[in-house]
Design goal:
- Helix 1 crosses helix 11 (about 325-340).
- The protein has a six-stranded parallel β-sheet, with helices on both faces. A six-stranded mixed β-sheet has the order 10-7-11-14-13-12. A two-stranded antiparallel sheet has the order 8-9.
- The chain has about 350 residues and is α/β, with parallel strands linked by helices.
- The protein is globular and about 60 Å long.
- Strand 4, helix 3 (about 85-95) and strand 5 form a beta-alpha-beta unit.
- It has helices at about 15-25, 60, 85-95, 120, 130-135, 150-160, 185-190, 200-210, 255-265, 290, 325-340; strands at about 5-10, 30-35, 65, 75-80, 100-105, 140-145, 165-175, 215, 220, 225-235, 240-250, 280, 300-310, 315-320.
- The longest helix has 17 residues, at about 325-340.
- Bound molecules: NADP nicotinamide-adenine-dinucleotide phosphate.
- NADP nicotinamide-adenine-dinucleotide phosphate binds near residues 37, 177 and 327.
């Protein structure tokens, strides 16, 4: 690709939006040329607004002015890091106006016509995009990435699906940055565990089954296994941990489960952002957010502590970067997938 594709960011000022800006600065295919956020940020140059990442703000982005959610001025490909309250209405409006929206928001993930994608798990579901366009009469479209905890479960379960998944039980310990900025009040979070995250358990249970589902003429048929999730918020900056137990129909030996995790982990998506999706760490004290969250630039999920579970057969621990693998990096990988199969350039 000789010239980079111009892209925009909806919600460029939030936690995910800033990570998108940072990760796209040196992207080989995409160039950020357009930014939008709420009326609170509108009219300011991006460089005049608060920046909360340790790396300096990319200079070219700093010079851009933040505009309103107006598709008329936006490029053909836009990332959405909008709060769901804004994404509900704005994303379909952009799609109707011919923009392809690569969204982090929960708003349209479970829409039967919207692909919910993790490229290493279900890249074939992207075929839904053509059906979405035809059914809605849109020249653009919406493609989504999953909830930041659901992606951990989906990657682990995808590695094991050859054994026949029967049941999944997952308890999550989720980082503060998952709540956006300013997120959870410090006095609630410090030295504490909060045993409720609104809507999170339902998202993990439903999105995992859609991601592992099968695409047929009727749409995505959810995977037939059951998922039970419990979610907690813990005082960690970045990195969601998932304690997963799984029942497998074939009752494989632990060594075969481990081999399947290793084999899946070795298969990076053939895209610029593709890295090992999983890595198994042979240390009973790992994975830990402090040590492992940045693995693979934040795109590799760390897995450890595989052992027998007296209830479901197998249990393990998975850890992933919620803002990268769970949001900004996931969206960029999805955009790479969309472009690589020609679905943006065909309409541009
Ligand atoms: P955030 O820090 O609260 O940022 C929200 C963004 O949406 C800001 O840019 C904000 O603009 C904009 N916004 C809010 N209301 C708006 C409105 N009415 N019109 C236009 N723009 C509006 O949230 P975040 O953590 O970045 O999350 C962004 C999205 O990604 C959410 O849908 C979230 O659920 C999802 N997500 C987040 C994570 C994570 O780990 N943080 C992971 C997966 C998915 P202003 O700055 O101008 O207010």
């Amino acid at each position: 690709m000789r010239e980079r594709i111009p892209v925009g960011i909806l919600g460029a000022t939030g936690v995910v939006g800033q990570h998108l800006v940072a990760r796209l600065a040196a992207h080989p295919w995409f160039e950020v040329v357009w930014l939008a956020a709420s009326a609170r940020s509108e009219g300011w140059r991006y460089g005049e607004l608060p920046w909360r990442l340790p790396a300096p703000m990319p200079e070219r982005t700093a010079a851009l002015r933040v505009g309103p959610l107006d598709p008329a001025t936006a490029p053909d490909l836009v990332f959405s890091a909008l709060d769901a309250s804004a994404a509900d209405e704005a994303e379909p409006r952009f799609a109707r106006a011919g923009r392809v929206v690569i969204s982090n928001a929960r708003s349209h993930r479970m829409d039967p016509l919207v692909p919910l994608i993790v490229p290493e798990v279900n890249a074939d579901h992207l075929a839904l995009l053509e059906r979405q366009r035809a059914a809605r009469g849109w020249s653009g479209g919406i493609v989504t990435n999953p909830n930041c905890a659901a992606v951990l479960v989906a990657l682990v379960i995808a590695a094991l699906r050859q054994f026949g998944i029967e049941q999944v039980a997952v308890t999550t310990l989720q980082a503060l940055s998952g709540a956006g900025y300013p997120g959870v009040a410090a006095l609630d979070a410090l030295g504490n565990v909060i045993p409720f995250i609104d809507g999170e358990e339902d998202k993990i249970e439903r999105e995992t089954r859609k991601l592992l589902g099968t695409l047929d003429d009727t749409g995505v048929v959810d995977a037939p296994f059951t998922v039970s999730a419990q979610s907690t918020r813990v005082p960690v900056e970045h990195g969601h941990m998932a304690l997963i137990s799984v029942a497998l129909a074939d009752r494989p030996a632990l060594a075969d489960v481990r081999a399947a995790l290793d084999a899946f982990g070795a298969r990076a998506a053939a895209l610029p952002g593709g890295v090992a999706p999983l890595v198994y760490i042979d240390d009973p004290h790992r994975p830990q957010p402090k040590l492992d969250v940045a693995r693979g630039g934040g795109m590799t999920v760390s897995v450890g502590r595989l052992r027998a579970c007296p209830l479901l057969g197998y249990k393990l621990v998975a850890l992933g970067h919620n803002v990268v693998r769970g949001a900004a990096g996931a969206a960029i990988l999805n955009a790479e997938l969309v472009v690589s199969v020609g679905r943006v350039l065909a309409s541009a």
